[in-house]
Design a protein that fits this description.
Helices cover 33% and strands 18% of the residues. By secondary structure, it is of the alpha/beta class. The protein binds iron/sulfur cluster. Iron/sulfur cluster binds next to loops.
Length: 376
């Protein structure tokens, strides 16, 4: 087993599944397997940050652990609470890079949106994070630690109920970290999130969707955002590699468990993907596999060429889906005053000019009339 280590060669304990932790303790430290359960509990139930707090572990073992391993892998940086309670937490990595997690509280649940990469390489045209480009992948511990340390920071009053991988990064561009991280989050002796409450959202990396279905029982969401290749090729360049036909076929073949449905995320872009025909095509798509649709009003940001569909038009779009028996929700826009809304992660200082894809001919006039031009 190859454990992930920091630059000083210390093993990142929150980067190991319980099975891997057991193997490491037995093979590398000569401990008995029961020790893993104790340490696991300190890592994820009591969420300690130092070995000295592990009071039922012998002094000699603690000394060895201090030398060979490490508990926290990220460091709390800043916390910003928006008027509606949405809380942006930023973390510093060993590399010095800053990543973000966002707590989205609501009456029924407290969802933590976490990051899987620093920046993103996918270049979705409506996304603010895309403008950072990809700086680095997070390791398993850096992903898991966002959950542990958020829990610690938020205290007893706010119980996290749901985890979504919808922060910075394309999770399936980093599957070797993301998949084990979901297994650690769902471990019943540790963080104990139910598989229905851990959702990974992808822009549509087909081979990794298949792998995800085989290796974890966490839930899948696909950021669909268009019903034709013409539009999807433009706003989500990954569609040029895995076009809609291939993506939808993959979702038909996906190994759905009992009562499982894939969530189709659909960012509403005015005049781009919000026509009646789009709604009808979306209805047809949802008939092909177990699914539900989440309509997301677009959050405009500096330099974007897009506008959000107006609220009344989003409701009309939702009504077409609903009348055809599609399970559909409209996401509330949250946390705008702290740039903690979807697609707005990453600090403005790290931005560069968007790498614009050419818009299909029929959209060019509309883009010009929005007075922002189409870019290069
Ligand atoms: S929407 Fe997601 S996959 Fe697309 S560029 Fe943004 S972070 Fe990456």
């Amino acid at each position: 087993m190859e454990a992930q280590c920091d630059s000083e060669g210390r093993v990142l304990l929150r980067g190991l599944t319980r099975e891997q932790l057991t193997t490491w303790l037995v093979e590398e430290l000569g401990e008995k397997p029961f020790r893993a359960k104790q340490i696991w509990s300190w890592l994820y139930v009591r969420m300690v940050s130092s070995f000295d707090e592990m009071t039922d572990v012998s002094k000699a073992t603690r000394a060895l652990l201090k030398e060979r391993a490490r508990i926290d892998s990220i460091e709390a940086h800043e916390k910003h609470v928006a008027r509606d309670g949405t809380t942006k937490l930023t973390w510093r990595l060993d590399s010095g890079a800053i990543i973000e997690s966002v707590l989205i509280p609501s009456a029924k649940r407290n969802t933590l949106c976490i990051s899987s990469q620093v920046g993103c390489a996918m270049n979705c045209q409506f996304c603010y994070t895309a403008r950072m480009g990809l700086a680095q992948n997070l390791n398993v511990a850096e992903i898991v630690d966002q959950v542990v340390q958020s829990r610690r920071l938020l205290g007893e009053d706010i119980q996290l109920t749901n985890i979504v991988f919808m922060g910075m990064g394309e999770p399936f561009h980093n599957p070797n970290s993301v998949i084990p991280a979901t297994l650690i989050m769902m471990d019943r002796l540790g963080l104990d999130f139910s598989q229905r409450r851990v959702t990974v959202s992808t822009s549509g990396l087909v081979p990794e969707i298949e792998r995800f279905g085989r290796e974890t029982r966490a839930r899948l969401a696909v950021s669909l955002n268009a019903t034709t290749d013409e539009v999807r090729d433009w706003i989500m360049p990954i569609n040029r590699r895995y076009p809609l036909g291939v993506l939808l076929e993959t979702l038909e073949q996906y190994p759905y468990r009992k009562n499982e449905r894939v969530t189709l995320e659909y960012v509403m872009l005015r005049g781009v993907n919000d026509t009646r025909e789009d709604a009808r095509r979306l209805v047809s798509i949802t008939r092909r596999f177990p699914s539900k649709v989440n309509l997301i009003p677009f959050n405009p940001h500096d330099g974007t060429e897009f506008e959000s569909t107006r609220r009344a038009d989003i409701d009309r779009f939702a009504q077409i889906l609903f009348s055809q028996g599609v399970s559909v929700t409209v996401r509330q826009t949250r946390g705008d005053d702290g740039m903690a809304a979807c697609g707005q992660l990453g600090s403005p200082g790290e931005r560069r000019e968007p790498k614009r894809m050419p818009a299909p001919e029929r959209f060019r006039e509309a883009l010009a009339s929005w007075n922002v031009g189409e870019g290069s």
